[in-house]
Amino acid sequence: MSKVCENETTTNTTKTNQTQEVYQGCYQDAPPPSRDFDVLAIENSKIPIVCFKKCRSLGYAYAGLEAGFACFCGSRFGRYGKAPDNDCNTICDGDRTVVCGGPWRNSVYKLI
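-> structure tokens emitted (112 positions)
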């Protein structure tokens, strides 16, 4: 099932001002320097929509939310493989309706 954030809530399809974020799944991460995503865009990103906007502004196609507060951006993801969806079980600090990954797990969204 696809998850999308619409107006800061999780639904099956996300649309925000002509943009859309489509949930790709839960993916494993690793400690630096070998992170799954290209860049840590915001270290204390408590609201998913802020992460999505930042990744778009940097020109990336994907956003990864990790551990409830970290925002990663990248052009690709998945080098460490998919994780079970229930591994991404940390609620976002700033939006309690959205799951923001988990320990060494990214909730990955495609930015459309």
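Strands lie at 4-6, 9-11, 21-28, 39-42, 62-66, 70-74, 105-111.
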